[in-house]
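Q: Convert this sequence to structure tokens.
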Amino acid sequence: MRRTLEVAGWLALIWMGWKTYEALWGAAPLPERIPIHFDIAGNPNGWGSPKGLFILPVVGVGMYLMMGLVARFPSAFNYPAKVLPQYRERAQELALDMIAWLRTEMAWLFCALQLAVLGAARAGRAPELAWLMPVFLVVVMGTIAWFMVSLVRLGSPRA
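A:
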């Protein structure tokens, strides 16, 4: 499952990079001034250069790689409950699964944000930004909660 999540995460990052490249240097490049900041309803309230579109891909790839680096050292993880030695390996597997899911979710979040900004640069408005962040917050927090509950249950004494 982790390999599939890694591929899905890389696909999101590659797609985001391709769409950014296409918007800057493709057949129909963006104008010199595009919306870069939006209010809660998706209306632009800040303008800037299209060159600023590189921020999301760079930060997205950076976070993806840093989370991958953290996943290389599962023996250094801290857990929300005391983990008995016989459950240590299972706790590490759960933590690595959680990181894999979060990496993929974050990659798709950055991709969706970038696509919304690119769409707004062409249409002048990004109404999907109004629901995008709340949905991703629920997904990410739900993932964290699911794995934290699993880790706490793993560490709790059996009745």
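The first strand starts at residue 34 and ends at 38.
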